[in-house]
Amino acid sequence: MKSTSTGVLPAEGGLGDHPLLAVEDLHVEFRTRAGVVRAVNGVTYSVGPGETLAVLGESGSGKSVTAQAIMGILDMPPAVIPKGEIRFRGTDLLKLSEEARTQVRGQRIAMIFQDALSALNPVFTVGWQISEMFRVHRGMSKGEAMKKAVELMDRVRIPAAKQRVHDYPHQFSGGMRQRIMIAMSIALDPEVLIADEPTTALDVTVQAQIMELLAELQRESQMGLILITHDLGVVADVADKIAVMYAGRIVEHAPVHDIYRRPAHPYTKGLLESIPRVDLKGQDLYAISGLPPNLLELPTGCSFHPRCPYRQDNCVTDVPPLHTISGTRGSACHYWREVVDGERQ
Amino acid sequence: MASGSEPILEVRDLVKHFPLTQGIVFKKQIGAIKAVDGVSFELSKGETLGIVGESGCGKSTLAKVLMALERPTSGSVTVSGRDITRARGGELKRMRRNIQMVMQDPYTSLNPRMTVGDIIGEPYEIHTEAAPKGDRRKKVQELLEVVGLNPDHINRYPHQFSGGQRQRIGIARGLALQPEIIVCDEPVSALDVSIQAQVINLLDRLQKEFNLAYIFIAHDLSVVRHISDRVAVMYLGKFVELGRDTEIYDRPAHPYTQALLSAVPVPNPEGREQRERIILQGDPPSPANPPSGCRFRTRCWKAQEICAEEEPLLQIRTGVGHESACHFAETHDVVHAG
Q: Which residue out of B192, B199, B229, B266 would a mutagenesis test of the A interface target, given it has the greatest number of A Cβ atoms within 10 Å?
């Protein structure tokens, strides 16, 4: 790989041998006055066309920072990417010039944010904001772009799109606002869509509508979807494969059915066991003890060891590599065999 | 958990309307937000009533009226035989000792300039008879221990604690006056998944230890099921269904409850393609101008003419063992169907 910035855009058309989007050993740190916050410590994942990858993790696990690094919207400084690659159709985005990245961002890789109200500009109509995509990236006239905006609002099923295109964000409900965000993100037919907690702020009935809409759009256009969430229910509903993050690392990755049937990392296992279950009503819920780690001072060895029921002496000193369990599964635990077999020590 | 014993909280036909006004100099009322519109229920000692519903359905307003933080438009809230909505001054203050609250957001509900000791001890400043001055510090330390925090941290500030620990501080403050009733308004929704279970277990343990009655407001249906003895489903200011947890979850009779349950993602990918899903169209109507008759009829697939004309009352209907407010109530197990 060349280390200088290039202006070469990622290829279009057939994928060849390359995955659509692959993150490889990505590190992101924030150099702050209080010290170096290691938010992402070697994340590797990939997503193919029409595939849904769920990135599961709690706040501070680095799932959103990884997504922002892919989009190239991290504030640098304080953020620094000391190591890693983000390959889109084989081209490392981190080595592209800023100009070339702008061509990729929004057009070929797009993102939906959690809080649609603060992501939309309150002083412009939604039609103006959606049509901006066409004006800026496609050089359309105002009239043409507005027509496109109405089409898109129809496509994300906003009723009476023709009239509502002139409304402001505050005139829409939470679910409708998220539809507008989705309309903006799919405006230019991106190949990869990153959805960062798209339904966390919404009610369950509206969440169901939005998730169905995303699934339909994905079927139509064969986008690769990266769904960032902490909701184990949403993941089980839509994901093809899962990457579980903890303290900036992928601790387990697997196809969706495997992970729910037989988790191979104590953290995943703990999360699944802490879900309230009907047959265990009246008993204590299983709770992962302790607190999420402080990213300024990550624990030595395995970051999860202070909270882990499987801990042995070497967990405190040795960072577990991502062990391959089978072709499609991996677990970053020294004792994944015991975890899969379900013997707690 | 003892249910069926004498109720310590009795709510009758509770209504809270917020006026909508127009004009700056001459204000005139042009309508009202019907946040809570005729809610009745009872709560026994040591019992947990879960209240679920979407945002804007009036559950938080209901909590505020129960706490006498808002005066209701009409109706009564009887705590241990006395109506808190009519109480004033010293009597209200005494009654408030018996009903306390745990707030949703542990990041904004604790004063950042007060130490943990001051926050938890503040109820004793207001209700000086609850603990003599010399005992307060010891009492606060006991409370910290009860909620699983280190009693030596009494002089720390809220920012030195994590979200889950802060919620424990909020719970300790709620316990300070030894109330019989605690209103929990979304107590775990701001916390990380791995921390939620810890706080739910704590609430469970405290209930057994002090025989507390909980009003547990949440939108996470699986959490509500875990902790509640009875569950009320709220839609646009009214209870549409009320029953024991098993009745609501396994035999829901109201179409809204069925839709709500079917919309909750099940954390198990097995058989996800076959699962029954009722996807409601649109958003809930505005509480300023609710539909006539049944309020759910605009999104309901069972709606007929009678639904627009006649409001269905919350009552026990034929073929359903618990109260529901639908003309066509019919039990249907949505979660296990498919």
A: B192
B230: confidence class by pLDDT, cuts 50, 70, 90: very high
Within 10 angstroms of residue A77's Cβ, the number of other Cβ atoms is 9
Measuring CA to CA, which residue among A184, A8, A221, A161 is closest to residue A99? Answer: A8
Q: Which residues of B touch A (CB under 8 A)?
A: 54-55, 162, 164-165, 192-198, 200-201, 204-205, 219, 221-223, 225-226, 245, 249, 259-260, 263-270, 272, 277, 279-280, 282-283
Domain range A21-239, CATH class: alpha beta
Contacts of A325 (CB under 8 A, 6+ apart): A254, A264, A331, A336, A340
How confident is residue B338, by pLDDT bands cut at 50, 70 and 90?
A: very low
Chain CA centroid to CA A332, Å: 20
Residue A276 · residue A324 · CB < 8 Å: no
Task: Tell if the CB–CB gap between A208 and B277 is shorter than 8 Å.
Answer: yes
pLDDT higher than 60, residue A200: yes
For the domain with range B1-20+31-98+179-228, which CATH number is right: 3.40.50.1440, 3.10.560.10, 3.40.50.620, 3.40.50.300? 3.40.50.300
Averaged over B270-276, what is the pLDDT?
79
Q: pLDDT tens digit string along A284-329?
A: 888 888 878 888 888 888 888 888 888 888 888 888 888 888 888 9
- Shortest Cα distance, chain B CAs vs residue A156, angstroms: 13
Comma-separated ranges of CATH 3.40.50.300 domains in chain B: 1-20+31-98+179-228
